[in-house]
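Following the same procedure, sequence and fold were stored together, as reproduced here:

>
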Amino acid sequence: MSPSPHRPPAEVAAPGRAAVVLATLAVLVSAADTYVVVLALPDILTGVGVGLDQLQEATPIIGGFLLGYTATLPLLGRLADLRGRVPVLVGCLLLFALGSLLTATAVSLGPAVLGRGLQGIGAGGLVPATLALVADRWPPDRRAVPLGVVGAVQEAGAVLGPLAGAAVLAVSHWRAIFWLNLALGVGLAVALRVSGPRRPGRDLAGVACAVVAAAALALQLAEPEPLVTDVTLGLGWVPVVAAQPWTTPLVLVTVVAVAGLVARSLTAAHPVLPLRGLPALAREVDVLGAVLVVVALGSLVWAFAAADPATQVVAHGPVLLPLAAVAAGAFVLHERRTAEPLLPLTELRPVGAWGALVVNLLVGVALVAALVDVPLFARATTETDQLGAALVLVELLVAVPVGAVAGGWLCRRTAPRWVAAVGMGLAALAFVAMTRWDATSLDSWTSTAALLAAGLGFGLAVAPVNAVLLAVTPSRVHGSASALVVVARTVGMLVGLSLLTAIALRRFTEVVRGIPSPLVTCPDTPADCAPYDRAVDAAVLTQLHTVFAGAAVAAALAALAAVLLLRTAAVDVRR
């Protein structure tokens, strides 16, 4: 199997600084959106007709985003290699904006899930394309710092997302969050498109059709009350054919404008949409491989994302796990035989390449324990609400971007494997300290020190993993390779959440079985129940300590894997 002869367009091979800055801002927006539902989810469910007593219905909203984010990453990474980084960034931003529009206007669960899925696809494609863009601009011995900055911005989204969501909810409706995402997505897409090289004869008619279609669709879905209730303007929402609700003037304008856009894209010299190149692109992109990897990753993601940790490790395991295994096996066999593989399996043979994936997988396992169980610990041991628990987690998250930038800087002076190993070793020690937390630990400065140390440790590992991966793979597959490292971390988080939670719940159940029944311990007065309550609280702490212990093991294994596997002469140069 020979490597693909296709290379990114010339204008992407040496991107301007403006393109890198805009792409990094796009990563920040999408990363913040990943966490924005933390506080807004109850309001979103109510807004789409799901009662708060049916919180299990939230699974498709969260799982849909994760499914879109993870399953299409290899395909989007390959597209970034074949057609350039900037076009993929623009396309992903527009998909993100469309998903935001559908979510903002959703009045039932279906459109909300579809919208979040499209947002996930768009958000997922931004990260590998941006990492590849950075690798295109800087040589291996200078790219660790900018890679650290991109990683820091991505991690900052975990801090800014919940805070931004809380700020919007304080002054407006939950839908305003997604209207803001829509504006940011479109604005960044336009800015990235404009920041690229100027092309003569730009298709202004096609641009006009795109603007009209987008505006008409947005108005149709949003249904702003002042316009809908107006005697004259409200006719835009009245079906032309009464029996067909879709025949409103706004929908018809959208259809005509889209048809015009397609026609212009097939005939113009410099079309808005590159439709004439789609047949060739379909041959280059390995459609069968894309379908197989989407089925494999999609089945795996949904199996873990839809699981109820209280009763199962995976959901629909007898169906989804074999399906994922069969699809993955068929994908590997197909990739070895096809002339144009979707993923550069042969380019991942260096130890540093697959080692980066292993390290990031273990990082994901450890990280999810902090993201989920630190707030749970705060809720269990203090009287804080959900926002207060999230603010405790911020003490950890705020250190991650700092560590990411510091890790990039250190990689220019120290072998990346040692930077990553020290970072994950620090995180492991922090989790060990968390296993000793008691009901009053969050009142002490020592808990803050442990949280900051964990966040700093996770951050230190960001740049070394990406730097090594991009150094040992050729530029023609940087998009695909970057997509794989993101997939590895996401899968690690999903698997870690299910496994650690299942193990911890089993430990909790064992401890609870040893507690005498409250009918025996407090038969007369509530005061007699104090021993029972203390025993239950101790069981909850045991459960959380178990998760922290598992995270410590995963972080320690990540540190060991970094030392053994993150090796490459291209970046192990001390400067």
Observations:
- The longest helix spans residues 478-513.
- Residues 1-13, 570-575 have pLDDT under 50 and may be disordered.
- The domain at 15-196 is CATH 1.20.1250.20 (Growth Hormone; Chain: A;).
